[in-house]
Amino acid sequence: MFTGIVQGIAAIEDITAEPGLSTFAIRLPSDKAGGVSIGASVAINGTCLTVTRQEDSVLYFDAMQETLRLTTLGDLKTGDQVNFERAARIGDEIGGHLLSGHIHTTARIVEILRPENNVTLWFEVPDEWTRYIFPKGYIAINGASLTIGEVRGNRFNIHLIPETLRATTFGTCEEGQRVNIEIDSQTQTIVDTLARMGYDRPAPTL
């Protein structure tokens, strides 16, 4: 379980591709890699992965082809930077919202606006996921718990303050880039329950 509060930026040291499996070597900041045990869960760009090996600050993770297909991990290259969060522990402050680390879909950044002292990102998601996206609702993007701003059809935006830009990879994102999306589980449950009762949400309008 994760909180959506990104703990920092890590770097892809190496990727080893084998039939049906890719192994990622990811370097965490030295002060964030202590006390990690083999088998621990770490969210990499919001995707829950299991630590298989550790060499100092470098953690190793295996990702199956299905994981690579459903997330943006298959797009990563050596030298790329990623958001990371180690699994939450009982007693930790939940500053964002509870996440499973299971990615539902991906979205594409379609526009970046840079008004003074903040950044607004517009995303486009597959139509079937728009039913769970509401203004002021929660969403996790590349593992970061964020609040949705406006919603227009299959597009929505988020507003980022300087601290979020500093602490995550959003500060260097580009238009056209794909990101991982985890829908808020409570929102999904409510929408699906209402749909089963005949109160389905109407299709989005542009």
Automatic annotation (TrEMBL):
Lumazine-binding repeats span 1-97, 98-194
- A Pfam family this protein belongs to? Lum_binding
Picking any one GO molecular function of the record gives: riboflavin synthase activity
Read off the PROSITE patterns from this record: LUMAZINE_BIND
Listed under catalytic activity are: 2 6,7-dimethyl-8-(1-D-ribityl)lumazine + H(+) = 5-amino-6-(D-ribitylamino)uracil + riboflavin
One of the GO BP terms on file:
riboflavin biosynthetic process
Q: What is this protein called?
A: Riboflavin synthase
Tell me, in a sentence or two, what this protein's role is: Catalyzes the dismutation of two molecules of 6,7-dimethyl-8-ribityllumazine, resulting in the formation of riboflavin and 5-amino-6-(D-ribitylamino)uracil.
This chain's source organism reads Marinobacter maroccanus
Q: What is the lineage of its organism?
A: Bacteria, Pseudomonadati, Pseudomonadota, Gammaproteobacteria, Pseudomonadales
Q: Which keywords does this chain's UniProt record carry?
A: Repeat, Riboflavin biosynthesis, Transferase
Q: Which domain of life is it from?
A: Bacteria
**Pathway membership, UniProt:** Cofactor biosynthesis; riboflavin biosynthesis; riboflavin from 2-hydroxy-3-oxobutyl phosphate and 5-amino-6-(D-ribitylamino)uracil: step 2/2
Q: Which residues form the Lumazine-binding domain?
A: 1-97, 98-194
What EC number(s) would the UniProt record show?
A: 2.5.1.9
Asked if the keyword Nucleotidyltransferase belongs to this entry, the reply reads no
